[in-house]
Request: fold
Amino acid sequence: MTGRGKERARLRTFFEFDDIIDRPFWVLPLGLLQSAVIMAGIAWVSLNERDGRPPIIGFGILEGLLAGCALLIATAIIVYSIQQLHKLFARGLRSVRLKRLETEARDILRADYKRALKGLLHASGLQPEELKTVSNPPECRFEDLLFSQAELDRFLGPLQNQCYRAVTPHGATPQFAPTSADRLTGKDYFNSYCAPFRVIAIFFTDTAFVVGQAICDPFTGDIQKRVRTLPRDQIRTSEFQSQIQTVPVTKGLLEDWFENRRLDPAERKRTRSILARHDMTRLDAKRFGTSLPSLPFAFYQDATQLEIRLISGETISLPLELKQSLVQTPPRASIFDDDLPLSQSRFGAFSELGMSEGFDDDPIFNPRRADPDRPKGTPALWSSGRQSRYREYSAFWPFVRSVLFALICGTALLLLMNALTTDWSESFGSTSETDIRIETPDGIKPRTVPEMRLSPNLMSHLSTPSQIQFACTTRPVSVRKAASARAGELADLSANTPVLALLGADASSRTDWVNVIFEQEGAEHTGYIQTTRLEVLQPGVRQTCG
Reply:
């Protein structure tokens, strides 16, 4: 585990793992195939003659377009299903690979942490019987991520309750990685795995505090250690301190993190706009010789540290816990020019620094004490987890757009086709004998309308034996008061209106007129209709018109 071989290369792969599922290359050819199927369907329906198609110019094309809408919905469902199956398969592969990488990374981090802690204990020269039990040692989240409780018991034994242990990020450009369970939720991106990391172990004896520090670089396997003994008679006070502070970040680090997370388009546009405004502000500041503004992004940190004050006046601050998130901050003067690269020499020079300086050497992760008041800052969307919903390409909204387009077009086509086949002369009460007709194999006939039935009142006349028979008008007709074309009009009846014909003693003596009973607006009337405009149905035949 101490080498720089493939195992350590796999660790970097885990920290830089790109979990986004890109749109596959075959989506475009699949879309072209879908278009070809739709066009073929439109052509086939339009050109293929079918029985019962109205003899209207362009009606076949309308039917073809309607069939194309149906094919669009059907093929959209198929394409959406294929994409969903692909994403399901890709998610499974991603999950398996990520868990395998995390297992390998945990093995490396666990081994380095063990080496660091063992090295500090060995360098201290302490024996188990010299150590005192401490009350309520703070929890170390890094340990919780790497070890189960059983593993921790086997590794530390009594040492669990005989020292304070803490792990915090180290260096100018540390790497961060959430756990595989949190990676897709956007949680704890800066509060899970980190590398390089600083290990702090504080041992207590009857006569001294023994403070050990180790800097571990898991990417190389290098570990630097330093131990300092603080006699109790030289310690004035020791207490835990908590503070909330805002710490600037460099533009290079920010862009690296943004690139790693592959933000959704809206967030990417928002971030670029903020950084563009910042660049313009910096140009104006350089032009007028004023102080350079800091980057409008920073770490919001909730830090807990142990402050040890010596009688000599020296204060040693030992970071024990660090919770941080990325926020957007208002512009302010920078404490350093973020155009200047931060040197990696801090890590290499660790052994040359004094104990108290060792916790202030990183302006990013161990800054000077900030204002104890709560810093002002808007949570950056990038660190809030919003982008986690866009870790794979979208198949749903293209499907919805296709279905909506097909439904709208199909509805419009149906309305148009219905308008072309509707008998508008009847709708407007036309009495013209030139009613709309269509050509059929049996000749030219009036267009049929839905079946019409007698009202219950008129049906009662058929229940008694008489010369009354069921009849239907064959075309729009005017009912006369007498058997004469000069007689006054009683009403206008449309084609296929059911009436009762009086063929017995009540019938007209003229053969070209028929006495009928009809109903309008709930009232029963008697009048005369020309025989040529009436079809009398024989008893036992259906009693519907149309």
Observations:
- The chain has a mean pLDDT of 78.
- The radius of gyration is 44 Å.
